[in-house]
Each structure stands twice: as structure tokens, then as C-alpha cells.
Amino acid sequence: MPESISHELLRLLAAMKAGGRRVAWLSDANRNLLRNPRAAMRPPAGPPDATMSRTGMTADSSATTAMPTARLAPVMPAAGFTPPPPAANTPPVPAPPAVPASVRFSPASQEPPAAPLAPLAPLDLAATDWTALEGLCAACKRCELCRTRHHVVFGQGQRNARLMFIGEGPGHDEDMQGLPFVGAAGQLLTKMIAAMGLDRLSEDPAQGVYIANIVKCRPPHNRNPEQREADACLPYLRRQIELVKPEAIVLLGAVPLQYLLGITGITKTRGQWLNYGDIPVMPTFHPALILRFSNSPQLERENKLKVWDDLQKVMALLKLPLPPPRKQ
């Protein structure tokens, strides 16, 4: 390149750079490549040693000598670049599949929903005796209550008793001792049984009673048993009833009424005879409900009288001696 031309070119480039413009020179070959990109896929027509440099210019020295001095094309800034429209035969990009609503989850947790619990396996206890039944209960892991229990509370009392009491589940004291109704509510139940002329510790079938619960492991914080927990434990209780063969059953509170007979509403149902198979059933208040009103003597007395009326109906059915009527 002549010296005058190179000086003039450098002067023009410096002036354009000072004015804030960016320019780049393109050879005829590179300009044709931009106009026809498919040409880049074909092998070069020149000799085998003619290769492309890292800047995109050919190694052919003749391209540099043909560089014009006045045709400098400015490079458009990237922000102003508009992509070319797609070719007519370009297939559309498919949209991603929609996520079903059943498997969507909150971005806050970023955890998928828990899988549903497997159905409980059926238990065939028809041929199970007392020893085998108690052993199955001691090793039971049919629900989550087994993870927090200290002892399985199987039941207690005369296994040929005429009368059976059924509560809801063990509390703290029962869980620690492995026996039903040994806390404050249990002490009140013992007094109620004694008032009927019976003894919860008697080995005499005519005087003893049998006590069990809907669930045999303590629910956390003494909450009511949940449906799945009751379903897991009910086969054991039903087999206990079959083995005892009581002449009557007393249900203590709303929970055994709901899970054993499928009836809700202990307040409107107590005192009315129901049936479990061919066994008469008397629902009444749980002793814990009476204790709940210990700070209100009037309410406590009213609830005690209601429970005592219910128990006297049981005594009449079993032909137990009734106490003399109270003087008004």
C-alpha cells in the first residue's frame, strides 16, 4: 500500500474513532459470505493452503491489496440488531408441555406433594387367642403412633367379664405404665365402677370388668386418634370384644362412639341404647369431661348425674342391685 494512502487511511480512522464511531473493513470475499451464509459451508475455491484466519479474513494476500480507501462500512451496535425472519419452511418450535395441576407445588416449599399412604393390610384375627393377640399388638407398626409410644396399652381386666368399657386411647400415664385408665380420669372411672357394685381388679367374672381403648398407642399431645390410626387398631379391639363376649358395652366419650359405631354427637346420643352386633351399647361421657369442669361445681355435678343415670341403665340390664333412690 502506498505511504500516502496508508497515512490518509489512518487519519480517517483516527477521526472517526474520535467522533465515537466504530468501523471495520470487510474484504469482498467476507462481504459475500455475509450476504450468502450458505457459501461458508462450501470448501474454499482457492488453493489448499488458503485458510480462514481467526478474524474471518482470508489468507489470500490479494484481498488486502484490493482494499479501497473510501468505502469503510460502520459496524452496527449490538442493541440495534434485528434477527432475520425465519425461513418459510422452518418448523415452529413446540411449546413445553403443561404441568398437570395435580402435580404442581408451591415455589415456597419447592417440594412435590407427598405420595398417598398405602392402604392398610387386612388382618385376619378370627383364630387368634388372647396370647397371640397381645403379642401382635405389642409388635404392631400399622400406623405412625408406634414411633412415639413407650408402651402398647393392650387392655386390662376380667377376660370373661359381663361388662366392657371402651375409651379413646392412652394418655401420658397409660403410655408410661402400659395400662388403661390409670391417670386422673382412670381414678374417676374406678370410682364409677365401684358405685355400680363392681371391681375393675376382680378376677371374678360376675364382679370384674374389662377395659380397652380404640387405639392402643398414645396419640401425641393426647389428641384424638385420627381415622387411619383407628382403622389400624380396630381389628384388635373387635377381636377383644369377640373373646370377652360381654353382655353390655359402655362407650366412654365421642371417639369410641364415632369409630366403633360410626355415630357422631355424644351429647345427644348418651343415655340411649345402641347395638354393636347383638351386644347392647350404652354411650356416656368420658370421665375426663367431668374433670374438665372441676372448677365449676354446678356443671361438674350435672355431668356426674348424667353419667350415673346412664350407668344405672346398664346395671338394670345386667340385673345388678340398684342403689336406693336419692332423697331430693
TrEMBL record:
Listed Pro residues bias regions: 82-95
Domain Uracil-DNA glycosylase-like: 154-306
Region span, Disordered: 36-95
Record EC number: 3.2.2.27
Biased composition (Polar residues): 52-67
Catalytic activity: Hydrolyzes single-stranded DNA or mismatched double-stranded DNA and polynucleotides, releasing free uracil
Enzyme class, broadest EC rank: hydrolase
One BP term from GO: DNA repair
Keywords, alphabetical: 4Fe-4S, DNA damage, DNA repair, Hydrolase, Iron, Iron-sulfur, Metal-binding, Nucleotidyltransferase, Transferase
GO MF annotation list: 4 iron, 4 sulfur cluster binding; metal ion binding; nucleotidyltransferase activity; uracil DNA N-glycosylase activity
SMART domains listed in its UniProt record: UDG, UreE_C
Superkingdom of origin: Bacteria
Iron-sulfur found in the keyword field: yes
UniProt KW Metal-binding keyword: yes
Pfam families: UDG (PF03167)
Family stated for the protein in its record: Belongs to the uracil-DNA glycosylase (UDG) superfamily. Type 4 (UDGa) family.
NCBIfam families: UDG_fam4
Protein name per its UniProtKB record: Type-4 uracil-DNA glycosylase
